[in-house]
């Protein structure tokens, strides 16, 4: 029983919270509202899975939100100025991935701890985003095909939910069914034994951070398409919530370890809490308080993993 609670307790608590809001919050169980929760969680989950990749290799990435904002203004700026959507999408994905590669090089070659390296990258990305926009958002009536990436529906299901499902399935396959995924996990679990076993731990760390940046780029494209606008701070609010989703996920399914399913469920729990509190009429700051409590509780259960990722100790 103790093992069961340790593995599934947080998920069961999330289910209890969901059932509470079904009973207490008006219109919470409305299918339209439930789909809206999943739609809002999609950005959070994709960013969180990127962070999960980085943390799996034993590194932190605190730059993904700023990289997403930079990729968004690059994508939005190109669309706004009439360039082909394919070029705009490629630019957003490339910028996010390039930021991840930069983080990987700083951590593995320059030997800067990931906590410091990714904070520096975040600052650079933030400055570049304001440089590209002069602090003014790109807004307009954009190419319908591009906008459909974030607004379309397939059989009544928002396409954002399908994008999220695709990212989750691919991430699960990579980490659980490929040699590369196994090497990434080994690198994060025990770096020196992994190196002695012939695993290229530097490459795995670069890959983890690059995937985090690449998924920031994916989120940027989808967020820009969904909002038909791009601003230099548009993804900033996702930093703490995405990290909280990952940390909450580390308390379930594979306790103490970053895992994709945990991140997904953690994101859904945070989305349910946010939506339910709004429907109950709670003040806006209550959400911030609850989020802070989630982070504190999750870190308390995963402190050793985070310490190792942040400082390499």
TrEMBL record:
Keyword Transmembrane set for record: yes
Keywords tagged on the record: Cell inner membrane, Cell membrane, Membrane, Transmembrane, Transmembrane helix, Transport
GO cellular component: plasma membrane
Subcellular localization(s) per the UniProt record: Cell membrane
CDD domains: TM_PBP1_transp_AraH_like
Membrane-spanning segments: 34-55, 86-108, 115-140, 152-175, 206-229, 260-278, 284-306
Signal peptide segment: none
UniProt GO MF annotations: transmembrane transporter activity
KW Cell inner membrane (keyword) present: yes
Predominant subcellular localization, coarse grouping: membrane
Membrane topology: Multi-pass membrane protein
Domain of life: Bacteria
InterPro entries to which the protein is assigned, alphabetical: ABC_transp_permease
A Pfam family recorded for this sequence: BPD_transp_2
PANTHER family: ABC TRANSPORTER PERMEASE PROTEIN YPHD-RELATED, ABC TRANSPORTER PERMEASE PROTEIN YPHD-RELATED-RELATED
Protein name: Ribose ABC transporter permease
